[in-house]
């Protein structure tokens, strides 16, 4: 049974509480909480939805990702973009330069996973620092060299296709960085920080929400805002988040769209969006049991994204190992980043990641053994694929489409 089918069964059980609203055929209610047709909430005539900080960090991450492919970029410049300080001229967008937000400060920074685990948080941030350092110091100097086992450089996809730039083991650091960030920033902040009960109910948040005590100078309660910030890490690049079209950034938005496009997982995008809507409505109605049920649905389904894509790219890499090594290495580099992201997932039944950091590190070590992708075997790729798929209750074949 796939994870998607398990979710649908859970939804069917909850559906005994559902009734269709007479005001809007698209609206549903759960325990008297109305799910609106779109993610749109107002207090009087003023919107209470705000997630500008998340939009800013997504935009920063996009520029950093682009800078990984510009050989004129120095290590200092990339590092400064990653750990931006307000007023520094790090980005092409003046609004980003003036912002006091940074990407690095929110990597491995969730309340539930890292507030009491500074050792792992520091190690994870160091991984991203190392991707930056290695790209500039190992890849850029070898940019025009031909890559081979043990030698960094460029390798071109078959038929005059895209040129990939890899390290001595065949890994593209830009892919490890971007796909790893999907987990260490977006997934971790959504699942383990802003949807965390410890964050939503922190201090007087619940009493303030019950009494509609607003954040000073704002139109929203602190609890409403925390939920919106989780929403923003997925939909913050949308031109209109009340009508999300997905694939609007290089992170969760893009890859929820990819998983949605697989018939075995079709409907996951709607499941996630509907849970965000209903959970936010539950906060407005002070119904915290419905809020927490929706947070669990989001955790389960967002966690599925890096798992499905890790298996997809492992199999894509396996299928191209002989005929098109450059294409294979590109797929395996993406898989590397998605596997890295598995340590930031969250199983709603255990409140722990589906894969621990130790398990993730073991898989990454398997991929990098010896000459890395130059030496990797189909057997190893199938073994890792099957392990990931089994943990999430889907099959390798289902994720390979």
UniProtKB/TrEMBL annotation:
InterPro entries: DUF4856 (IPR032331). PROSITE patterns: PROKAR_LIPOPROTEIN. It comes from the Bacteria. This is Uncharacterized protein DUF4856. The lineage of its organism: Bacteria, Pseudomonadati, Bacteroidota, Flavobacteriia, Flavobacteriales.
